[in-house]
Specification:
It is a single chain. By secondary structure, this protein is of the alpha/beta class. The chain is built from 21 helices and 22 strands. The strands form 5 sheets. It has a 9-stranded mixed beta sheet with strand order 10-9-8-11-12-13-18-22-21, sandwiched between helices. α2 (14-36) runs antiparallel to α3 and α16 (425-441) packs antiparallel against α20.
Length: 626
């Protein structure tokens, strides 16, 4: 047995394959003669005629094999391309036999030296034997090296074109490790049928298949699967420790061909997605096309996605502003690689520096501003309140004042749900920035619009990247409290809603996004662990560290005194908030900003609480100021 395994593991030399192919051709001619004459070749058939047929066919096959290189393929890894090459080579050779016949008949002696019946039988026999023997050898190799019973089962969700391609890819690239157990499809018309030797089952049979078989992986080949369906599919698989993989979109296939390595594990972000957002494309297009647009915080997770979204509407120029040098450079490289025709300007600058910002507005004269630059980490800002004031308040004030001075049409500020009933310095600083832009907007022609949303999946500081890193490092996964919940939204979803709200706003609104249902963080962590193929409390543990200072157990999107009004879009609402007199607020904010020089944290926070009465510190040294 070991000798046979060694034989199959060794690549057969090319000259042996070439010789075997010629032997196949020889036997095909013999078979053709025997079949043509009912296994009794007539004696009147001259030896010269027989020799002519043999020499001609074998000679042409010899030359065609050399030219096409059919013998160069590795037999134990025979693919559809190898079969295609053999088909073209054999077909071309047989067509040449027909041409030779026609030349002899019309140009020499009006006879067919190669009987057409012999040509047809030889063609079919040679083609069949060369392809079948290769596939047989491949199957034997697969069975001997890794017997069928030792292969792990795989289920493919989707019995359409993509599912067929996925199966063939699996057979070609990973056939030694996996076997396709079944197809699952929602189309009832396909249920009970067989596709490429594999039975097709309905979705209701998935649990039964998973419970009765050791299924290693389920591969989702369907591209337009709804988020709700995907969640149910994954939940069923995780109950049986079956990994879930995703076939990437066709546009991501390498040279238009799918490979097994491209089929990746499903990510937690995909399970938190919701149905696609319906946007008013025409209205957004009319607002953004051929406009000069300034995006602050353009190297950040939100700012960079706004850049990608805005690009689709062909602006006149985009100014990417950020103080983070390396991420901004990465963004520039992304634009160079993918958007050669885009007119853009990369600007390194600090929004707290009024002179630098004045130069940006004076030089580029933006017509729209998307303001995403901010300090966002709650613990960091709690320990450094003066910096939160300088960036989140002064920085926003600088940009808003310059937007008015240089007659910007619209100014869209990216805020946060932490500005609602703030319990920390960061949230309060964003609320003060909201108040300033909203009150300023009542006195000028520039339209100031605010958008609020919760945690964004994959953004800098999100729990998802942190959990993923902890899982990769072997754990433990740390969570502050077993009951803590958060709202989540994907980065593209959040930015699409920003564009929709920003372009439809008339100024003064604070738009609230429908964040869906809040997610329990511990459930999120457990699902991420399972998706990684690990077992909770065996391979990796979850530990609870206790709420951090100023951290809320539950997050809100609206303050108690607020309510909302619907808009044209079901996922966007307008918050009805308290309005402030601009002169009063302007004076108060100037006083707050001037307190930076004293570097007295308690003084700064006290003034913030005066500006935002609903700001009540939680689990913080500043509780004594309430």
């Amino acid at each position: 047995m070991k000798l046979i395994q060694l034989l199959f593991q060794t690549n057969i030399p090319r000259w042996i394959i070439f010789f075997i192919d010629l032997v196949i051709c020889f036997f095909s001619i013999v078979i053709a003669f025997l079949v043509r004459f009912n296994f009794s070749v007539p004696k009147e058939l001259s030896t010269e005629a027989i020799y002519f047929v043999f020499y001609t066919i074998l000679g042409i096959r010899f030359i065609s094999f050399l030219i096409s290189g059919t013998y160069k393929g590795i037999i134990k890894h025979t693919s559809s391309k190898d079969s295609q090459r053999i088909f073209i080579t054999i077909t071309s050779g047989s067509l040449l036999f027909v041409i030779i016949n026609l030349i002899f008949f019309y140009g020499i002696n009006e006879t067919f030296p190669l009987p057409f019946s012999i040509i047809i039988i030889d063609y079919m026999s040679t083609l069949f034997l060369m392809i079948t023997l290769r596939l047989l050898f491949k199957a034997l190799y697969s069975e001997i090296i890794n017997p069928y019973r030792e292969k792990r089962s795989v289920i493919i969700f989707g019995a359409g074109e993509s599912g067929i391609i996925t199966k063939r890819t699996l057979d070609r690239d990973a056939g030694l490790k996996y076997k396709v157990l079944a197809f699952i499809d929602d189309d009832q018309k396909k249920e009970g049928k067989i596709l490429e030797g594999i039975h097709i089952f309905g979705f209701d049979k998935l649990d039964e298949l998973l419970s009765k078989n050791d299924v290693a992986q389920l591969i989702i080949s369907v591209q337009n699967l709804t988020p709700e369906r995907k969640k149910k599919l994954v939940d069923s698989c995780l109950n049986y420790d079956t990994k879930v993989l995703n076939v990437p979109p066709v546009s991501d296939w390498i040279n238009g061909e799918l490979s097994f390595k491209q089929i990746k594990k499903i990510q937690i972000e995909e399970l938190l997605e919701r149905d696609p957002i319906s946007l008013n494309i025409e209205k957004i297009k009319s607002q953004l096309t051929n406009k000069t647009i300034l995006i602050t915080g353009a190297a950040g997770s939100i700012g960079s996605e706004i850049v990608r979204q805005v690009i689709q509407f062909h602006p006149k120029k985009i100014i990417l502003l950020d103080q983070a040098e390396s991420p901004l450079y990465d963004m520039e490289m992304e634009l160079k690689d993918g958007f050669d025709s885009l007119s853009y300007e990369i600007v390194i600058g600090d929004i707290r520096n009024i002179e630098r910002m004045e130069n940006v507005f004076r030089s580029f004269k933006p017509e729209l501003v998307f303001h995403a630059a901010a300090y966002k980490h709650v613990p960091m800002m709690e320990n450094n309140p003066s910096e939160s004031i300088l960036t989140n308040v002064l920085g926003t004030k600088n940009l808003a004042d310059l937007a008015v001075k240089y007659q910007v049409e619209k100014f869209v500020m990216i805020s946060t749900d932490k500005a609602v009933n703030p319990t920390n310095v960061m949230g309060a600083s964003k609320r003060i920035a909201e108040i300033y832009t909203q009150s300023l907007g009542k006195t000028v022609s520039t339209k100031f619009i605010t958008t609020r949303f919760g945690n964004v999946l994959g953004s800098n500081g999100s729990v998802i990247p942190r959990f993923r890193q902890q899982i990769e490092n072997g754990g433990p996964v740390t969570i502050t409290h077993p009951e803590i919940t958060r709202f989540f939204m994907t980065i593209p979803e959040a930015c699409q809603l920003v564009l929709e709200a920003g372009t439809s706003g008339n100024g003064g609104e604070i738009f609230i996004f429908d964040m869906g249902e809040s997610v329990k963080i511990v459930d999120l962590a457990k699902k991420m662990i399972k998706l990684s193929g690990l077992t909770l409390d065996k391979d990796i543990k979850i530990t609870f560290t206790g709420l951090r200072p100023r951290e809320k157990l539950y997050e809100e999107l609206l303050a108690n005194e607020e309510n909302t009004l619907p808009t044209h879009h079901k996922q966007i609402m307008v918050a009805k908030v308290k309005e402030y007199d601009f002169d009063f607020i302007n004076a108060q904010i100037k006083t707050l900003i001037n307190s930076f020089d004293k570097q007295d944290n308690k003084l700064i926070v006290k003034q913030m609480k005066q500006l935002v009465p609903e700001f009540k510190s939680n689990n913080s040294i500043y509780e004594e100021l309430d």
